[in-house]
Amino acid sequence: MKNKLRKLIPLWGCLAVILGVFYCYVFVVNHFTLVFWGDQTEALIPYMVDLYTQIKETGFTLWNHSIGLGASNLVYYYTVLGSPSFYLNLLLPSSDWIPYFIPVIDTLRFFLIGTVAWLWLDKLVQTDRAKLVGALIFTFSGWAMYWLHFNYFLDAYLYLALLLYFSEEILENRKRIGFSLIICLSSIISPYILYMFSWLLLIYMTCRVFMKYDKVTISFFFQKFIAIFGFYLLGVALSAFALIPAGLMLLSTNRIGNGTESLLTPLYGGDLIRVLTSLFSPVINDYDYNIFSSPFLKLDNRVYTVYNYSFILYVLLLPQLIKIKFKGKKPFALTMGILYAMLLFPVFYLVFNGNTSIRWSFYYIVFNIMLVAIVLDHGSQINRKLLIASGISSIIILMGISVLSLKLGWTTDINQGVIKRSCLVLTGCLILYTLSLLKAKHRLWNLLLVGTVLFEAIFCLYLRIVNGNSILVANTETWDAYQQKMFNTEAIDFIKSQDSSFYRIDFADNSSYAYNYPIVKRYNGFTSYFNIYNHETRPLYDNRSTDNWFLGFQPSKFLLKSLLGSKYMVVWEENQYLIPHTYELIHVVSHQKVYRNSLDMALGYASSQISGIEQMQNIDKSKEDIIMLNSIVVPNTEKKIHIDDMYPLIAESLVNSGFKWSQSDGYLFVDYSQTNPYGVVAYEFYKDGKQIKYEENYEFGYTAIRIDQDIDEVYIYCKNFNNVNEYIPVNVYWISDNAINDSFQRLNSEDRFENISVNGEHISASISITDENKWVATTIPYNPGWKVWDNGKELKVTEVNQVFIGFELEEGEHQIKMEFTPVGMKLGLGVSGIALLILVAMTYKEIRTTRSCHYNKNNV
Fold it and tell me: Where are the beta strands (DSSP E) in 1-121?
C-alpha cells in the first residue's frame, strides 16, 4: 500500500499543476467567477439550491408543487440526489455559497478520477509512465471536459473509473461486493448511466476475458459471464428503491427511442464530418462540442457530436497498434474496430444510449486510454519510422480539416478563432510528443512527454471555457445580474407574508434561466423543465405552450393560468408584458411589481356545469381554454357547453391580412395551434387610415392582443418562427372584458375548498357540496401515484380538464385527503430490502472466510 501511495505522488503533483494553472487563469481574467452559462446557470445551480433548502430547512417531500404544475420530487431530482458531490454542499453555511464551491468540488473530483484511473491502469500495464499518462488523459478527456458544467455526470465518470477497476478485480474473483456497490451507485445517479454502463461492461468484459486468457471456451466464457452477471443484478436490485420509480416515469416519456429516420443508413454530411474529426477536436462548450463542425449548422444532422477526444497523443500512437505485440492484441484490436465502425450508423446510438445522442462517447475514451497505456508500456517496440510518419500525417490532417472547416463554413464564428489556436497548439504537441518518444530512453525526454501531456490538459481546460459566443465563461457583470434576478425573493416574500393559502404565482420573465425561478424562489408557479418529470401533463402543453422540455413564461395563457390557480403575477419594472385587466397592482419592491388576480381558484372547485372531452377534439387550443373556463371537462359524457357567443370567431384562416374592427376593452386571440404552433405574430392597429400601434410577439400556440383604445382596423401577420418567409394561417377570436369578468364571478361563486393544508405529498381540505351532486376539478395535475379519500373512503380519481385530478362528490360536507407515492416506490423498497439482506449475508460470509484463512495460515 505504501509503495502504491508513493507511486501516486507524481500523478497528484501533475493534477495539482494542471488545476492550479487553470483556476488561477480563470479567476484572474474572469474576476474570480467560474460559472458556465447554459445548463449550469439555468438548471444545475437552481437544482442544488432548491435541494439544499429542502434538506436543510423545509424538509424533503415526495411531491414538489414548484416544478411546473407539480411533479414527483424524487424523480425530478433523481440524478442530483444520486450525486455524491451534491452532499458536500450541505456542509456550507448557506445556499449562497453553492456556486462558489463548485471549483472546490471539481478539484476533489478530478483528483479522485485520476487516482482511480491510475489504479485501473495498474491492473493493465506495468510501467509508471504508461499509468501516469493514461490516468491524466482519462481525467481530462473529451467526455470529462464536455460535462464540466454538470456535476452528476462527472460523478458518473468517477463511477466509470471505479467500475473499470472493480471489473478487473471481479475477473480475478476479488472485490465482488465492491463491484455490486458501484453498479448500485451508478444506477442511483441515473437510469441512463446504468444503461450505458451495462453495454460498456458487456463489451469491456468480453474483450478483457479474451485478452487475459489464452484459451477461452464457450463454457469458460459463460461461467465467467454468469458469475459476474449475478453480482451485477445484485447491484441493480440494491438501487431498485430509486430505479423503479424513475424508470417507470422515464418509460412514460418520449425520451427513449426517439430515433431518427433510416437508422441503418450510414452517417453523412455534418454528422460524418464530426465523427471523422472527433479525435482531432478538443471539446469546447456544451453547444458546439466539435471545433471543426457545429451540430447546429445545416449540414444534414441526425445525431449529436461525438466527444471522444483522448489527446492528440492517441492519434499519434494509434498506428503503432500495427507493429507492437502484446497479449490479447487481436481481441483488443477487433473490439476497437467494431466500436469505431458502430459510430457510422445511427442505430447504435439508439442501442447504446436509448436515443440518438452521444453520451456513450466514454466507451471510446476507455479503449483509447487502454491503447495509449499499452503502447507506452511497450515503448521499446515503438517503430520509429512509423512514429515519424504518423506525426507528419497527423499534422497534415489537422491542418487540412482546419482549412476545410474555415473555408467551407462548417463551424460557428467563435470556433474559427478556436480552430486557429488549436491547430497551432496541437501541432506543437505532436512535434513534442514525437521527439520525446523517439528519445524515450533519456529521463529528460520522458519528462518532456509528461510535460506535454500537462500542457495539453491545461489547453483542453482553457478551450472548455469558450462558452457560446464568448471566449470566457460568465464574467462578473453578467454573474451579478444573474444573481440579482435568480436569487432575489423580495417580491415572493411579500406575497407569502400577506397570503398563506395555496395559490400559484406567474413570474413575467422570459430570460433563458427564468423557467426555474419557482424552485429557487420557492413558490408554486407554471414554468419548469417539465417534460420528463410529470409526463401526464403533456396534453395540456402540446400545441398550447411548448413542444419542448422547457416551459417558459406565456403571458397570453392568462385565462388558463387563472383557472389553474394563478393568484399573483410578478413583473420586472423594465419588462413590458401583457398585464391582463383582471390583475391589480398591489406592491412594488426591488424593481418588481406585484399584481393580484380577481380570481382565486386555490385548490380547485366543484360544479355541476360539465362538458365532455369529445368537445375538445380537433379545436383550437384557445377555444379549449374557454371551454375549461366555463365547465369542468370530464370523460364519458356527451354534454357540451355553448361558447360561441362569448368567444366568437372573427376571422378564419387569415393569412397576412386585416379586417375592420371597432370594439374595445377586450382581447383578440390569434390562434395558430392547429396549423403551426411556432408562430411569430405581428399586428397593426389603425384609426382613420393612420397606424397607431405596431407590435411583434412570439408565443407558442396562440397570442392574445389587448385592445383598450379606439381603432377601426386591425392587420395581423403570423410568420413561421423557423422560416420567416412562410406565413401561417390563423384563426382570430374575440373575448370582451365583461365576458371574462362574468366567467370569473361564476367560478368565485362555485363550491370551493376551504381549510386547505398542502405539505408536499400530503394535502387536506374540506368542501361543502350544495344543491346537487357535482364534479370536483382540482388544480393538482394527475399522476397515477396520487390517491384521494373522502371522509376516510378512497375515491375513484379521474382526469378532468385534460390532465388534472378530479372526482365526483355527493351533496353534503366532505373532508378530502390526498396523498402521493411515486409509482413503483413500494416495490422498489421491497426489492432493495431483499438485496440488502443478501449483500449483508454475503459480506458476513466473506469476512468469516477471510478470518478463517488467516487463522489457518497463522496456525500452520
Answer: 63-64, 71-72
